[in-house]
Amino acid sequence: MTTQLYAKNGHECLMFHDLVEEGHEVVQSNQFIICHDEHMAVIDPGGVITYNTIFMRRMKHFPQSKVEYIMASHADPDVVASLNKWLVQTSCRLVIPALWSRFVPHFCTQSIEDRLIAVPDRGGLLPLGSSWIIVLPAHFLHSEGNFQFYDPVSRILFSGDLGASLVSNRQAGRPVSNFDEHVPRMIGFHRRYMSSRKVCQYWAHMVRELDIDMIVPQHGSFFVGKPMVNRLIDWIERQDCGLDLLTQAHYSLPRTKLL
Ligand SMILES: [Fe+2]
Ligand SMILES: [Fe+2]
Fold this sequence. Notes:
Blueprint: E1 2-8, E2 11-16, E3 31-36, E4 39-43, H1 48-61, E5 66-71, H2 77-80, H3 83-89, E6 93-97, E7 116-119, E8 124-128, E9 131-137, E10 147-151, E11 156-160, H4 169-172, H5 179-193, H6 197-207, E12 214-217, E13 223-224, H7 226-237
Helix pairs in contact: 6-7
């Protein structure tokens, strides 16, 4: 199913949330398209499982458009393992943290040097036709080189793994209706995958300067409306996670057989 997050005056944002078949040992993930007039960016397109369906749906929804960018928040397989297919079948350029730019060629069958936009740590503004996408630093949330993408037209923040929840495909296509009930679906993921409270606080201070109507993570349900957006930012800011929670006990010599 395709969820239309925003559509107005030739600017459209789509979300795909059910392209990974349930029942397999695969984490649910969301993929996104921003299309401004005929200029298209695909955000965190996923791996080989999701490629064909996204490609077909983008042809159906935006037959005139051109895929200008594949935008990867970081270099995990659920984010950008389909890269080679996009490079072969479209004339897209890859937008990725500079930190990972020399690692992703391992996904590719050809040189990508002339199609690479290696974003420096500070982020930047990326043109999309007459509009822009703001590439925001979100390092260590969770990946060491990590960006989020803010669309100033729809006022959607595509937050990558931050704000993610582990839910069914069906739930992922819905906005969060009760924040407190949603917390148990997020907390384990954040405690393990996010690096530290210090970074969460820096991120919260930065995004409070943006006018955000929606936060849409790469896994699970999304957050609509300023009260819900603010609750998520406040919650993330207070989370002890990653290094905060580690003790010597996590680094003891193992004694259990794996097989
Ligand atoms: Fe990730
Ligand atoms: Fe992810």
